[in-house]
Amino acid sequence: MGILSRASYVIRSKLNAVLNRAEDPTETLDYSYEQLRDELQDVKQGIADLTTQKKRLEIQKRRLEENVEKHNEQARQAVEQDREDLARQALEKKKQKMSQIEDLEGQIQDLQSQQDQLVEQKDELQKQIEQFRTKKETMKARHEAAKASARVNEAMTGAGDEMQDINQAIERAEERTEDMEARSQAMDELREDGVLESQISDESSLERELEEVRQKGSVDAELDTLKAEMGKAEDGDSGSSDADVSETELEQELADESTQVDVDESEVESELDELKEDEQ
User: Fold this and answer.
1) Largest Cα span, the chain
2) Considering the entire predicted model, what is its pTM?
3) Does the pLDDT value for residue 22 go beyond 60?
4) How many angstroms separate the CA atoms of 158 and 168, rounded?
5) Of 55, 47, 34, whose CA–CA distance to 123 is shortest?
């Protein structure tokens, strides 16, 4: 096989594959049905033409028959007038017309045979068209049902192109969400470790630590001042006794406050229970 032959074969095979993919069976069936109907119309047109031609020949035959009758009458009149020559001429024309009539009858018979054959072909073609139309509609219904079933199966299994696009979109969304979650967790860890500083506050980590040390020092200084005022560090036993009394009184007051808080909370819960009973 030569290069040109191989190239031609490859091109034809490619075109055939493209046409097979692009071909819609329902459209092909409809087109074939229209082609058959066009052929039926051509057969009917042929029958009409044959019938017209046969009618013309029949008209010619009828006129010739009229001429034959006319020449026969002319021959009788010539014999009555003792004009055998005229009678002979009339009879000769009569014979010619009769010969033409025979030829026309043969042509008419041939046209009639062709017409009968075309009518049979027309009836057979019309029957085939009706059968094809029924089969065509059945095939179209089966094709549409198969397409619907395929679409449903593709949707259920995710094998279709549209479902594949949707699945890819979901995968991309999941990847982006996971990236954002990982980034958020990383930022939280960095912020907790102090690597990243808050953009809301104007203070740096060093400034915040200095502020904490300053506040702690202030509390310690205030505590020392309070101790000095109370003379806790300089007093003797009497001071120690007073301190013990003060500590005892302070603990009693704190206990009383704690008991008061518990009582207040029980009273609040009691009032809430009464409100719930009223609503019910």
Assistant:
1) 198
2) 0.45
3) no
4) 11
5) 47
